[in-house]
């Protein structure tokens, strides 16, 4: 009778079977118990933790008991987010401090680096490298802020650039040199002599304005390759249970979910993860949500009155203010009326000494229209009333195109304006309480060829990325204006561009039609700031987005385009737009007032 063979016996005779048996054994490990090598636990550093700048990672499997872990979590610094990972008995830890701690609603995913295969696909239009300068650190913080993440002191990044436990990677645009993505890796062996030879991925973030696809995937892959080369056995990550987009990426890369728990401390940063959510909060657009989050952080009561429209009421003490995104009761009806009619806005700011382009009303006189076009070479056609860039046509140079654009603009508003076109960059300046808070250049959408896809397919892919990055607020329409813009360059929607070839698909830089926004607050010319504040005072409006066309944001030349009484504050992070808005509405509620009372600068 033949003896029964075990998987271990077969593994001894066949190397391939041995590898399979090893992987099966690893998959049976209960990771919620803090690892698969209890006999080696004494090799690990006691109470191991890594300072990541935004907070500390506490490796719970290295703490002696729940009391020691709770004591460490209580040492969390202000405005920081500590995370206890690999908590084996979260119910016991929470029972020790139920009012202070909560179980993070995130899943843990693991990539087995022994079976991971490097991708042959190379990034297009960008490359991944290590963080190498303080400018890189500033760019990473900008991306963190745009994603609602906790910022890190730039000097922390720089001082830890040689820290062998922490790896910072960034993605850089090949053409502009801008940092468009980032990820952080932690080597567990170097952090606390981890017997499991683990590593983990944290803070994966892609710039919402990035024009290239696949940035997040490239960063994850590069980090995995880095840790595999170092001899790590696996790479873990934590992702919110409802982040379907991120989970889809990780599962595509063959991460698998494991049983591991994370505990965090209750604080204003984590509040949305443990507190009862506001009714209809998820229906709010990103512009309303930004303000609501800042209000709740300050302890201001929020009542959502119409989520779909972005309406909410803020109350603190005896003061109550009704808002629609950044438009509040502090903005008068007269100021709104001035901003609503672009011709009126132009007249009001012109009387205040603001430089404005020549303008006329499209009244059906072809001779006057032709003369206006001939005088200025190129013109802009836009409805007198309208928002979000609807029916705005830029750079028209012939009567036929202008008349067609006028007909489309009349679908939005009966009265249509034609004005001289000023070549340059579209600059938005956000003025709150008659002080500049943010300045950004808005760039029109363009696509980059790959030698395979048509312009239509590239636009559709760009539109999906813009929609994902803005919560559906920004998409690139494929309409007559897009076709006209392509035709000017000698292209059509079915044209296949060469790899790396860039093509502008719309001339208007409005965010709602696919434009992107790039912060220039630190370099904007003082004369532009003075002009924007003067325009706000002329309209007498406390919160406004002033649009200029400029040759360069660092130069004084400009012409006024329009004023927006409800600027999208979420587009200007990391500038403190929501903070300054709440300072205006509730002057004693913020950190700025607290510092003043305490005599701090």
UniProtKB/TrEMBL annotation:
Keyword vocabulary terms for this entry: ATP-binding, Nucleotide-binding
Q: Which PROSITE patterns match?
A: ATP_GRASP, GNAT
Q: Does the keyword Transmembrane helix apply?
A: no
Q: Where is the signal peptide?
A: none
Q: Where is the N-acetyltransferase domain?
A: 126-279
Give the matching InterPro entries: Acyl_CoA_acyltransferase (IPR016181), ATP-grasp (IPR011761), ATP_grasp_subdomain_1 (IPR013815), GNAT-acetyltransferase (IPR017534), GNAT_dom (IPR000182)
Q: Which CDD domains match?
A: NAT_SF
Q: Does the keyword NAD apply?
A: no
Q: Which NCBIfam families match?
A: trio_acet_GNAT
Q: What is this protein called?
A: N-acetylglutaminylglutamine synthetase
The top of its lineage is:
Bacteria, Pseudomonadati, Pseudomonadota, Alphaproteobacteria, Hyphomicrobiales
